[in-house]
Input
Amino acid sequence: MIPVTTLKGKKVALFGLGGSGLATARALVAGGAEVTAWDDNPDSAAKAAAEGIAVADLRTIAWNSLSVFVLSPGVPLTHPKPHWTVDLAHAAGVEIIGDVELFVRERRAHAPDCPFIAITGTNGKSTTTALIAHILQSSGRDTQLGGNIGTAVLTLDPPKAGRFYVVECSSYQIDLAPTLDPSAGILLNLTPDHLDRHGTMQHYADIKERLVAGSDVAVVGVDDSYSSLIADRVERAGGKVMRISRRHALADGLYAEGSRIMQASSGAASEIADLDGIQTLRGGHNAQNAAAAIAACLAVGVSADEIRAGLTSFPGLKHRMQPVGRRGRVVFVNDSKATNADAAAPALSSYENIYWIAGGLPKEGGIASLAPLFSRITKAYLIGEAAPAFAATLGDRVPYEISGTLERAVAHAAADADGDEHEAAAVMLSPACASFDQYKNFEVRGDAFVSHVAAIDGVTMLIGSAAGGK
Output
């Protein structure tokens, strides 16, 4: 835990006592703040009270006595309308911040020189975050991984000299971190997302820009117009910018040339890494992720040799295009995190001769947008509620069976792939659906896939456990 010592003796209100909110309340109390917390969910409030955290309806407190108001990132700050606590804070002139802001204040207070890499972007940020942490860890550095990737940032070990932090930041977290100041900040890309919470694409982009604008080194993917303009603005303001592209050669920056990652300076380029043969970094989207990770690691003093070693040994992000087993020429890929068609497209784009397991609780639009990738699919195995609709979309273009359950789909796909005469085949769970018709969440679904793969005769597992661990 990182005790929030910078608010010791100060009165603080906190709203939102879910996972990260409760962790934040604990960190505030541990640092000596006078905390009053609340949540609209009575069970969450009761859980905090049972731990000795002061709980009270924030409508009843004296807001003008507060130093700050800490809001959980899942609670609306601006759109579709501000939460009622936000209105109360504004009326009293109380600053509104979140857990990432508390973290950066603690870092500045106790170890301002410890390297801090922050990652954001519409797509790819979790893979990039995990890859950076792996490169740092595999090089022997003291590495802390957290943020939006699933570990609340204030549950990490406290800042100290030589400790590296790798923190994934959502737009919600950035919006609540006005003094965010990473050693290296990454903005991967920007496409329309979360507009229900940000109102317009421009507002969403403005929030994302704050992360790189406050960085010592800004690493910016420039393959979309919003991000490219952000890179230009940060540079004009005097910031150091490292541009990244998966589509175009750059005069300065890092870019993908096939599987090779090129580093360019003043128009002269040389290869810094080659992703060929690294199964966990297949596809153009992962070329961008790898280029950004390389740039950030270089910025905090990691050598090129250390980076290349880390890339080669990267086990992949759990449930995201994760090779989990192999039998002969057949690789088994867990892409359970692909809960809609857009999310499934990168995996389908990265393999050929695919025995595709898809289905679950369908999302709007189904899989029609994946039609350009159907030629890569040798056969589909359809499960869950979406099976009939997916079958209708596939029609005569892709052979399919309605397997019903994941266990049956894995067994049938493995048997069919085993008899394939091609050089390589992939049995891939990339459902393009939510999991809730058959599983609690995509993690449980992915773990079930791994377990079914592990039960197949002759399979060599590529990950640490049958539960899908890293």
